[in-house]
Amino acid sequence: MKKKLKILAAGDIHGDSRLASQLARKADKEKVDLVILTGDLTEGDQTPKGIISPFIKKHKKVLIIPGNHDSFATTDFLAELYGIKNIHGYSVKYEDVGIFGCSAVNIGMNSMSESEIYTLLKKGFDKIKYLNKRIMITHTPPTNTKMEKLSHAFLGTDKLDVASKGVEKAVKKLKPDVLLCSHLHEAEGIEEILDKTLVINVGRKGKVIEI
């Protein structure tokens, strides 16, 4: 029987080095194989100190994607500086588990069209679609979810694009086993099924999953 891949996923750190250290200690305590950071590592793209290094000091493998507070350049810089992987538009493989991602941000400095979001996710997916288990990583959650409805209720309007139609399309067409996202702070910790995919808003506290 193959050993399951154990992951700590978290997002929306927003330059909080104390939080990053707490998450790194959790990753070490839980003996996770991989750490996934689902965007908004920075606050307003200010180059963060002590956001990635706590995980490196614990000898953890790390995957990142940008959020709406992180420029593509800063995300690439962090990946190169610490020898980790930015999987925005790309994928990686760990034994029989494929992981692919995209920021899926439809607001702010990294704003992408919904068609661009879907295209990038499919590009990453196509490289690992043959694997038994597939995990999709986005910053922005999909539309038509409890997360989106909760955020609209919290904001008092349904006129804002708090979720992504491109991500929803990717979930329904690519059918990943799990989607890990963040972005909507008020929806942190929510787990739900969209089509046949388990969607988890991992939030700032982080979530440990095994697959």
* Content of β-strand: 15-25%
**Based on CA inertia axes, which overall geometry fits?**
globular
Summarize the amount of helix as a percent range: 25-40%
Structural class computed from helices and strand pairing: alpha/beta
* Number of E strands: 11
Query: Any idea what the radius of gyration is?
Result: 16 Å
List the total number of helices.
Answer: 6
Keywords:
alpha/beta
Description of the molecule:
This protein is of the alpha/beta class. Helices cover about 30% and strands about 25% of the residues. The protein contains six helices and eleven strands. It has helices at about 15-30, 55, 70-80, 115-130, 145-155, 165-175; strands spanning about 5-10, 35, 60-65, 85, 90-95, 95-100, 135-140, 180, 190-195, 195-200, 205-210. Strands 5-6-7-8-10-9 form a six-stranded mixed beta sheet. It has a five-stranded mixed beta sheet with strand order 4-3-2-1-11, covered by helices on one side. Helix 3 links the parallel strand 3 (about 60-65) and strand 4. Helix 4 packs parallel to helix 6. The protein is globular and about 45 Å long.
Short description:
This protein is an alpha/beta fold and 211 residues long.
Fold topology:
Blueprint: E1 6-10, H1 17-29, E2 34-37, H2 53-57, E3 61-64, H3 72-82, E4 85-86, E5 91-94, E6 97-102, H4 114-128, E7 133-138, H5 146-155, H6 165-174, E8 178-181, E9 191-194, E10 197-201, E11 207-210
Helix pairs in contact: 4-6
